[in-house]
Amino acid sequence: MFAIDPMLNGELLWTPLVIVLLKVLAVFVTGLVATMLMVWFERKVISGMQNRIGPNKAGPFGLLQTLADGIKLFFKEDLIPERSDRFVFKLAPFLSFVPAFLSFAIIPLGGDFRDGNNGMVTWFGHTTRVQLADPPVGVLFALAISAIAVYGIMLAGWSSGSKYPLLGSVRASAQMVSYEAALGLSLGTVFLVTGTLSTSGIVAAQSSIGNWNVVATGVVPFVIFLIAATAELNRPPFDLVEAEQELVGGFNTEYSSIRFALFYLAEFMNTVTMSALIVTLFFGGPQPISFGGIVLDIPLVPNGLEGTIWLFAKVLVFLYIYVWLRATLPRFRYDQLMDLGWKVLIPASLGWFMLIAAQRLGRDQGWNTFVVTGVSVAVLGASYALLQAAFKVSAKQREAEGSMF
Amino acid sequence: MLIAQNISFAIIAAVMIVGAIRVVTTSNVVHGALWLVVVLAGAAAQYVLLAAEFVAVTQVLVYIGAVMVLFLFGTMLTRSRIGRDSGLNNTYWKLGIPVALALFAAMAIALVDSFGSEKMPADGAIVNTQQISDQIFGPYLLPFWALSFVLLAAVIGAIVLARKD
Known about the structure:
By secondary structure, chain A is an all-alpha fold. Chain A has 13 helices and 4 strands. In chain A, helix 3 runs parallel beside helix 10 (257-282). The longest helix of chain B is centred in the middle third of the chain and has 26 residues, at 53-78. The termini of chain B are far apart. At the A-B interface, helix 4 and helix 5 of A face helix 2 and helix 3 of B.
């Protein structure tokens, strides 16, 4: 019925069912362990950057610190504020936690994509992918899930029945809705270049560095996606949702015990998932690094397993970048945040999309590349001038009105 | 397989009906919006059952991810009270019943008229995104443009309304 896995076509047997269940379990456990290690990684790297030692007591190098914190949170008192909306208050952490895991399901976690193989592996006589599901709408599914994730934060703030969480959640929803548009628009270019929405198809199309979407789409969509993804994750410098100096703790102020832990877990899980998504979309996912026919092959490891190692290495780079950004950049002011989203990222991604689309059309129709480029650049320049004129007019009017507050 | 689909359809439809009734009977605006999310999610699930994955994902992306979030956002900015609200019904609420019935009749007639006793193939192949886009940008290009202009008009209207001068 669903084309999510070639293994499920035909008669439904026991072995495919067991394989799917094992995959679900593997994805869930990988997610949890990755989140646990990510929390440790972030604390350790940040402490290094701030010239501190960081967690070093629980386990070797403090590796078990997250586990210890989790157990501690389990045993804390579970408070529900008296003026809260009890059902929604209890529901909100799960609305935030479940989507974080769901989008992990569509990421190819390994498999052999080189030499025209499309990432299939054979387990117990069944051909399948090293990914829980490969729906034809792939990446759109991830976007839909990240849209749903807003609800957890928004409802948490509202149902707490106090002012600061509400402010935090109103900020969150405004921010996430604004940046979702840029996120989706920058992906348009990727779809245009690869011609498919499915994650495994996108990975299969990126066989060497020249084909990596970061190069094929011309870096701009990747930069926009990275910024928009950071905003979507509510990570610094876009963490206005939980700006502790202004909002006490933000949307999760009233949460304690395991409910708070769920929010915390979802936040870090989302970071891991988003990094994996970036790698899948722009950096070839589990494909090995290869350039001009030379493949960096890890000896002795079968190709299917090698994919997992490459994916892990690439994801690690982005996780490090996220931590690095956190340690380096100060928080945005709210109006700067909105300006960046609406006035820079959305027009830029739209313009770039049109540029690439014009190039593609020109190539298909056999038009002169230089003419096409010249015309599109001229059109984009004119649009940019119009946009700037509009900004100028609105700024003048605002000045004439006097300040709003 | 078809039996399983029928059972799922019935369950989801029942949830959707309960949700739709709760949208109008609940006494809390935010709860009403959340019940509406349940109804819209149910519609998305029905699309999945019909093997229309793209439509289902778009439904979630647009209605649940954008429209309802903005709904809730607006509600939180204006009246974020927790607990019961009084006076949510205005005096003309009974007028809504004939309007709803008329809409239902119009849609039912349109559906029956265009499809009649036609049935979907039991082992229907999944319509992929490319086929949908070929349809939209081919035979249905004109309605698509018309819709885009309606949306554009709505956007411009919203800006005009929100401007102070």
